[in-house]
Specification:
Number of domains: 2
Shape: globular
Number of strands: 10
CATH architecture of the largest domain: 2-Layer Sandwich
Helix content: 10-25%
Strand content: 35-45%
Order of helices and strands: HEHEEEEEEEEHE
Distance between the termini: 16 Å
Radius of gyration: 15 Å
Number of helices: 3
C-alpha cells in the first residue's frame, strides 16, 4: 500500500487504488487526519474491495514527501511507550499498531502505549 501511494505521488497522479484491508484503511484514515491525503473511499468491485485514495496537492507541491515502512514480515519492530521515535524532529508522523488500535506516535505517548511501528510519513 505504501509503495502504491509513494509511486502515485512521485508520478504526479491525483489518485491511487489500493486493495482493501482493515489495517490499510486504518492507516489511511490516520494519514487523512494528519493531512497527508485529501480523501479516501472504499469501493466494492464484485467480490473485491479497493480503497481509492485522493492525494493532496497544493501550491507548494505534494503533501507527502516520504513514506517508509519500518516493520516488515522478516523484521518486526516493537517499541515501548518511552521509545516511540520522532520523525524529522516531530514534523513527521509515526504510525503504530497498539492494543488500542492503530494510533500515531503522539497519541500512543499520551495513552502510555507501545506497539509495533508500522511506518513513518513526512
Amino acid at each position: 500500500m505504501l509503495t502504491r501511494l509513494r509511486n502515485a505521488n512521485i508520478g504526479g497522479r491525483t489518485e491511487a487504488l489500493v486493495p482493501h484491508s482493515r489495517l490499510k484503511s486504518d492507516v489511511i484514515r490516520i494519514l487523512k487526519r494528519e493531512g497527508y491525503i485529501q480523501d479516501f473511499k472504499v469501493r466494492k468491485d464484485g467480490t473485491h474491495s479497493n480503497i481509492l485514495v485522493t492525494l493532496k496537492t497544493g501550491a507548494e507541491g505534494r503533501a507527502i514527501t516520504g513514506l517508509r515502512r519500518i516493520s516488515t514480515p522478516g523484521r518486526r519492530k516493537y517499541v515501548g511507550a518511552r521509545d516511540i521515535p520522532r520523525v524529522l524532529g516531530g514534523m513527521g508522523t509515526c504510525v503504530l499498531s497498539t492494543s488500542h488500535g492503530i494510533l500515531t506516535g503522539a497519541e500512543a505517548k499520551k495513552k502510555n502505549l507501545g506497539g509495533e511501528v508500522i511506518c513513518y510519513a513526512w
